[in-house]
Fold this sequence. Notes:
By secondary structure, this protein is α/β, with parallel strands linked by helices. It is about 45% helix and about 15% strand. It contains ten helices and ten strands. It has helices at about 40-55, 75-85, 105-120, 135-140, 170-200, 205-220, 225-250, 255-265, 275-280, 300-310; strands at about 30, 55-60, 95-100, 120-125, 130, 145, 150, 160, 165-170, 320-325. The strands form three sheets. Strands 1-10-2-3-4-6 form a six-stranded mixed beta sheet, sandwiched between helices. About 35% of the residues are buried.
Amino acid sequence: MTTGLSSPSESEKPEGEPAAQPLPAKKYRASIYPVDEEIDQSFASLIIELEEIVGYKIWVLIQGRDETDWGMIGPQVCQGFRAQKAAIIANEKVGLLIDSAGGQARSAYEIVRLFQRRTPHFSTLVPLFAKSAATLLAIGGREIVMGIEAELGPLDVQIYDQDRDEWDSALNSVQSFERLNAYALMAYDQAMMLFSSRTGKRPHVLMPYALQYATSIVGPMADKIDTFEVTAKARELKVAEDYAVRIMRPYYPQALASRIARNLVERYSSHSFVIDRTEAGPPTPDSAFGLGLNIAKISAPIENVFTRLAPYLSDSVTTPVIGRIMEVSP
């Protein structure tokens, strides 16, 4: 920064005066995780720069590819935020920057409500990626600051499959069952139309044959479905939908909140479906399928910071960074 005064040249310095030493680099840490490790200075500087642009404090939830409990939205992450709740100043504007593949709907709901109970001025920021339960986090803000390349996802929940020792998408299982059901009905209708046009017989005579045809096609696939498992996953999706309605109620009319939540669960065909900022916002002449979320207009300075944050987000990072970014005292 130029101050109007220039430093003396080497020839002007008194003899024997030691050369000026560079100031030590600043050090930063995250308030929740990892508390015992320093945070990359360039990353920390970007978060501080973003705070200066938006004019409020920003918490971060960046989870990357880490496979520990800190790498997904769950009880441990929720407890971490609870331990820091005193740092959320009442009625003060605050933001949560999210980059996460998701986790448990209940924990996402509890984190959002923790912020909402303390201030009505809660916003969420999504530079690139907020999926599944992280989408639930994102829609809990009064406004969502989405980057130009950012994406949300369907309101899905992850359920641990003990047999396969991995997390599984509830949405994928339920949608597969619904598609099978739709295919069975289509096969039945097509058989009825074909038999009717070929034989001229009345529908009640043809129905048993059409049912037998549809069953012969769909039956072998249906026999492999664990209906108890599908029902349990459908119930978990309904829980996520109900959580979504409740966290949107402070900012949206009841009917709109219900419609957005229902569409986030039912409209999309897979767990990985991309919901960009155009589709996430209100319907427009160019996007008749807008969900109706409060997507903030993004300024050039914010998008610039989001772009420079990209190397520290999603698949580029292996260690989560969670909480407020704080400068470490020397």
